[in-house]
Amino acid sequence: MSGLFDFTDYGALLGLVQNSLIAAALLGVVGGLIGVFVQMRDMQFAVHGISELSFAGAAAALLLGVNVALGSVLGSLLAGALIGLLGVRARDRNSLIGVLMPFGLGLGVLFLALYEGRAANKFGLLTGQIVSVDTVQLGWLVSVSVVVLVGLAVVWRPLTFVSADPEVAAARGVPVGVLSVVFTVLLALAVSLAVQVVGALLVLSLLVTPAAAALRVTASPVLAPLLSAGFALTASVGGILLALGGSIPISPFVTTISFAIYLVCRVVAWRRTRRGWGGRRPAGAETARPVPAAVP
Amino acid sequence: MLSARGAAMAFGDRVLWSGLDLDVAPGEFLAVLGANGAGKSTFLKAALGQQRLTAGELLVAGRPPGRGSRAAGYVPQQKSMDAATPLRARDLVALGIDGHRWGLGRRRADHRRAVADALAAVGATDYADAPVGLLSGGEQQRVRIAQALATDPQLLLCDEPLLSLDLGHQRAVSAVIDRRRREHGTAVVFVTHEINPVLDLVDRVLYIANGQHRLGTPAEVMNSATLSELYRTPVDVVTVRGRIVVVGTPDHASGSARHHPDDHQHHDHPALRTTARSGR
């Protein structure tokens, strides 16, 4: 265990990773907030699909010697556009993602194999490279985050309506199609952000797990995004702080914290549902009730 | 509240209905009946401004139906909502008032009051703070009616709101709709494949089949002669213990107690259809 953690010189290390901490905190907030809509719209698989193409874009940029962040954003947007245009129905969408994902991953691996630079750069795109966020990259990350956060703030309420209740939202004149496109673009940007920080393989730990955990314990439309962002922030920043004291990359810490929060939320939800949540019990006398919190 | 003049709807060559003249008065309960795919839901879509008429005119509260018009409230079919939806019953109703507005902004006090009133009016105050994913089918439909009524519309458009509810909840939900139209003069257009749960409330029936329609009181429309003419095949309408049973329609549109769309498919089955016919 002594080889795993060493917290001497911790203060000095902290100064070195200041940029990374800012990037992680931003990603936590963005990922946690957008994650709530990912859950509501059932797009967890899309997140994974977009992240693989984002990885391919970043790998292509690395090979061509251009801005990796830009490559990652372009890959994400391309994936988002394909999924948005071709996968209108959920079933089409999932099979499309299943087709795109290995193709993107394969392309990415090809680009990395052709790349002759530092090996750490290659590995970082898949499993995270947050400890090496430099000032140029931070500028990108901050701008993309601001775009996503402002975009989310503008569409928040109608997007909630459409995501939870598409038929009535359409009847009330909410532009369902426009919002779907806007959301896919915002999601693609958020994913590209996450790919650069935690790597393509671990995007789900910040865009899906925290929101899934939050929605287990609250149904309040105000509390759910706040909790989700808080959980994602805890996982991303906490992951870096723990990783600093050891020789292991940050991703296992991020994913483990994220998963632990999820487990705690499930236990809390289980206990609450058993006692009756808001007067509701899952196995009540009424018949037409769907069983909540069904184990998949 | 809802008026149609020579209204027609067709998809290509297939005419769903045409030459429809209709005036729904305040407080009137109009049931729209017909086989699956006959054009019942399309009629609602036209009233919501989501589908353009092929010909004629349709007015909601004297105006062409605009998307998102506050003159009409909409109650969809019950469907189970995801348990992980971050909305409580109260929030779902509130979205009916301001869900189309951009931005975040806090809810205004008068909105919150309107939400509470709407929930109280349908008897849903007890579960106002329950997550929507944990509501039963009947509770969910009451909340949906509260959502549709929160903007105080003059017209309530319901698309199979009782589908998949058990008998007790069907009664409770239709009673809520009935009280609303009596106390507030809200006109109700109620699309259903099953007239019996609302038979006592219905003022007039619009029956759509084979690109044609008949409009009149339940007695005028729900009889063997009218439906036989409409379906162009012998159809028997019998009343058993106060329930209307229709036998012999290709789709068996308003037969005995059936609450699930799945059940419908059984009646489309050629073998079953033959049995039904030869049994007469």
UniProtKB/TrEMBL annotation, chain A:
The chain crosses the membrane at residues 20-38, 45-64, 70-88, 95-115, 135-156, 168-191, 197-215, 222-244, 250-270. Keywords: Membrane, Transmembrane, Transmembrane helix, Transport. It comes from the Bacteria. GO terms for biological process: response to zinc ion; transmembrane transport. The keyword Isomerase does not apply. GO terms for cellular component: ATP-binding cassette (ABC) transporter complex. It is found in: Cell membrane; Membrane. Belongs to the ABC-3 integral membrane protein family. This is Metal ABC transporter permease.
